[in-house]
Amino acid sequence: MITHLFNAMTDFHHRDPGIVGLLSASSGSECLKLDANGVPLPERASAESAAIFYGLICDGIHVHPNAVKIAYNSHPAGAVLVSDAMGAMGLPDGHYKLGNMPVVVGPMTDVEGCPRAALIQGTGTLAGSIVTLIECVRNFRAFTQCSIVEAVEAATLHPAQMLGIERKKGTLDFGADADIIFLSDDLYVQKVFVRGELATPDTVGIE
Length: 207
Fold this sequence. Notes:
The protein contains five helices and ten strands. α2 links the parallel β3 and β4. About 8% of the residues have low confidence.
């Protein structure tokens, strides 16, 4: 699992692709080894190296939409959407805390469109995001022009596969946990079921 692809890692270079270059190591690729005479022999990639998953903070700030699209086009089956959200998610602009660090939430006036972001006070350093996961799903679809199914799977099936729990999570198959989200056609949450029970303020303990 590549955590937070593109963030706090070496840049991609055509002579030294670094971690980003691992996107080409998709499932089912061929690895070449040499025999005693130096002749390449094809060999199936191991299970450990075949499945490469990468997390994307898909808020349009941490990773540029074009970079999201490049990653998706390189290895769509490995995309795992994450929010990296801090406590100010869903709250208005203002001053907050991330651990002992003061954080300011507000529009980034030096960025096109002036998107809202969480910055460590007095710096231009991002302090996590304030995006929800379903917003990441909508952004991912908009940035990549992928299908609704692919966008949803990037937040459900793919992370379950990465954790090895795809028979219980991220699927509607028989025998899986009955954790279900109903979405509108434009990918807004309508209802949430946890273990087959409709989630309400009473059932999830929200006061």
